[in-house]
Specification:
Helix content: 25-40%
InterPro entries: NNMT_TEMT_trans (IPR000940), SAM-dep_methyltransferase (IPR053384), SAM-dependent_MTases_sf (IPR029063)
Shape: globular
Number of strands: 9
Number of helices: 9
Number of domains: 1
GO molecular function, one term: phenylethanolamine N-methyltransferase activity
Radius of gyration: 17 Å
Distance between the termini: 35 Å
Bound molecules: ligand JIL
Protein name: Phenylethanolamine N-methyltransferase
CATH topology: Rossmann fold
Family: Belongs to the class I-like SAM-binding methyltransferase superfamily. NNMT/PNMT/TEMT family.
Organism: Microcaecilia unicolor
Structural class: alpha/beta
Strand content: 25-35%
Strand order of the largest sheet: 3-2-1-4-5-9-8
Oligomer: single chain
CATH class: Alpha Beta
Length: 265
């Protein structure tokens, strides 16, 4: 079995509820200070979209997982949002939230914080409703395929968003770089890519699953984007405080990159 196939096989044990518990509930979901990881992530995304540079008809979220926080600041800038994931269990968790099914994960603290960061005085229920209206598809994706969405995509998107996916789905740096090339085919020339990911992480837990991660440094990420034909517009790093190192992974830090796909080779 190839190392990529082994990664896919291991993901069959991924437990979305455990993953949400580990990363999106206290202590990591602490909104009391801008110095905590979740406010930092939301601020990176809100400020990037707040520049007004990133807009168009369609944005694709690559490897959404069971989370929606990563698209909270995008609805005002796009007509359509496409969410994607490798696992049906995650796509089902997303569909249930999108349909406001009882028992879905409570993203309201995140939605409220995004409204505060954007400073438009938008009520969080309005943002929530707008988000549900604009997510038009929840599609299967495999970043290791030349065409990650298969034949589901008719034309490239105006922007891509991806959080904690490529490094957690790639067995080594070479496949991380190749996966970036594959997903870049989904983006129009001149389009923008916002990525958040783990720095120097080698594993994380999601219930019974222990998933291996290719450890990447800031330089590794910058090099991958540059070699893939992007201009890096902004790059930020967050150092995980010891209080947030809670045993669910060995992540050392978080990166945020805003990159623009060059218009000619
Ligand atoms: N071949 C594939 N193609 C596309 N997606 C794929 C593929 N294989 C798996 N996937 C998909 O990718 C996965 C995305 S979740 C990956 C989690 N990454 C690690 C975790 C994340 C995290 C979150 C928050 C914080 N924090 O401090 O706030 C820290 C950390 C660090 N640890 C999962 O949805 C899977 O379904």
């Amino acid at each position: 079995m190839s190392s990529i196939a082994a990664v896919g096989e291991n993901y069959q044990k991924f437990n979305p509820r455990a993953y949400l518990q580990n990363n999106y509930m206290p202590p990591r979901a602490d909104f009391s200070s801008d110095d905590f990881v979740v406010p930092w992530k939301l601020r990176c995304l809100a400020e990037a979209f707040g520049t007004g540079e990133i807009h168009g008809h369609t944005v694709i979220d690559i490897g959404s997982g069971p989370t929606i926080y990563q698209i909270l600041s995008s609805p005002d800038h796009f007509e359509e949002i496409i969410m994607t994931d490798f696992l049906e269990v995650n796509r089902e968790v997303l569909r249930r939230w999108l349909q406001a099914e009882p028992g879905s994960f409570d993203w309201s603290p995140y939605i409220k914080h995004a409204c505060i960061l954007e400073g438009k005085g938008e009520h969080w229920k309005d943002k929530e409703r707008k988000l549900r209206d604009k997510v038009k598809h929840v599609l299967p994706i495999d970043i290791h395929q030349l065409k990650p969405l298969g034949s589901a995509l008719t034309e490239p998107a105006d922007a891509l968003v991806s959080t904690f996916c490529l490094e957690a789905a790639s067995p080594n740096y070479e496949s991380f770089q190749k996966a970036l090339e594959n997903v870049t085919t989904l983006l129009k020339p001149g389009g923008h890519f916002l990525m958040i990911g783990a720095l120097e992480e080698s594993f994380y837990l999601a219930g019974e699953a222990k998933l291996l991660v290719v450890p990447v440094t800031e330089e590794d990420v910058k090099e991958a984007f540059t070699r893939c034909g992007y201009k890096i517009c902004d790059f930020r790093t967050y150092v995980m405080p010891s209080s947030l190192k809670i045993g669910v992974d060995d992540v050392r830090g978080i990166f945020f990159v805003h990159a623009q796909k060059k218009t000619q080779a």
